[in-house]
Amino acid sequence: MVTITQVAEQKIRELMAEEKDVIGLRVYVRGGGCNGYQYGMAIARDNEADDIVLEQFGVRLVVDPESAQYLAGAEIDYVDDIMKSGFSIFN
Q1: What share of the chain is helix, strand, coil (3-state, %, to 5)?
Q2: Is the Cβ–Cβ distance between 71 and 37 less than 8 Å?
Q3: What is the pLDDT of residues 2-39, one digit of tens each?
Q4: pTM score
Q5: What is the largest CA-CA distance in the chain?
Q6: How far apart are CA 35 and CA 5, in angstroms?
Q7: How many other β-carbons are positioned within 10 Å of the β-carbon of residue 67?
Q8: How open is the CA angle 15-18-20, to the nearest 5 degrees?
């Protein structure tokens, strides 16, 4: 459903190492108004019973069922260049 690049995986591990009681990275979609859908990510400390939990490179991604339909085939990367640095979701 969702894939992550090795660069993103390394950055996720760095972020998770700084936190306590982390189970993974929550990836979600919100909005749908004039600006369209927006992707979001947050540290996941727990998961709901209906969440989808994926694991790649030993990193867990937690996705709620509603967001899952919009994230099918998406790739998470970490970009660090002159213009910006941060996670990007390509779908």
Answers
A1: 20, 50, 30
A2: no
A3: 999 999 999 999 988 898 889 999 999 987 777 778 89
A4: 0.85
A5: 41
A6: 27
A7: 21
A8: 110
